[in-house]
């Protein structure tokens, strides 16, 4: 029974981390798993020789922390932060189920604990099967400061529930004791649900604000792009207006056989026309044109830029989603080349649009010491890691929405990223 309880509590916490905290990336360290297995075996052997319920629970909680660290790709500090939030939430849920079991069943405390732990594991995975796997896996993960504050509040609530339960059962012995326990239990259940809803709502608001900022950025980029187009159109009109006078001047220089002046005059004309025609990047799509020109035009003299491909304006992909994909890919490429020597800077953008798929591939130079990859995963190289790194997550979310693929890689000083999403033009936006 003691060993079973130890194993069930570890499974309970692993399940909660996986389902609610979105820890679905398994760690690659083999040594950590062997060490964890050794600790588990030692704990099991130790529990066979003790009969103290409190010691079993303490060892199980320590084992849960160690097993989560070994199983998932998670740092110790992140694990500790999530545990401080997970423990009081599970305690509240356990107290609710425990009250119901004590009301209907006459069993010892250890048996009750095993039963409600099994029930919680079942509830967790039923929720995951019905709804959990359909929502964003980071929906219940909070920033560190807010998570710690909420943990402190939950610990206070757990202490209050424990005190009221003890007072009603051991001190007061009133006729309405069961009613009071029922109210405490219902209150605990409401608190548990409200906490989950609050976390989900907070993260939804955060994502909404980030998307709004991105759309505002896109609108600003679009305004600047259209201002550039307007300036280009004005220059084009000016050339059209002056073309007759310039042709007359060309004829006069030719008639007077002033070929040197004629050559200089023609060169000036060609430079002006070339400056207009090369003032932007055009792949046929207004959104992508806006983003390409906003990020690439300012650095085109300091970086070798190649843009290939064509994509129409009419796509089944939502404009916002297309903006999220392209802007993050281009922005990351521009930030990467800024860390490279000017002679080695390059960005290549290749876009292919078919009847079924849209492919966008970015190649760019990068600093070999940037540390773009950590344990095979892409990460932000900025110091403020809490406020950055959302770009790649946003790309992954959009790609998943369209049943696409997002791949990337790095070799020496070259980085590439490729996005492929379904683009059924017959479908509605």
TrEMBL record:
The keyword Transmembrane helix applies. InterPro entries: HATPase_C_sf (IPR036890), NatK-like_C (IPR032834). Residues 321-420 form the Sensor histidine kinase NatK-like C-terminal domain. It comes from the Bacteria. The keyword DNA repair does not apply. GO terms for molecular function: ATP binding; identical protein binding. The chain crosses the membrane at residues 6-22, 34-50, 56-75, 82-101, 113-130, 142-167, 179-202. Keywords: ATP-binding, Membrane, Nucleotide-binding, Transmembrane, Transmembrane helix. SUPFAM superfamilies: ATPase domain of HSP90 chaperone/DNA topoisomerase II/histidine kinase (SSF55874). This is ATP-binding protein. It comes from Agathobacter rectalis.
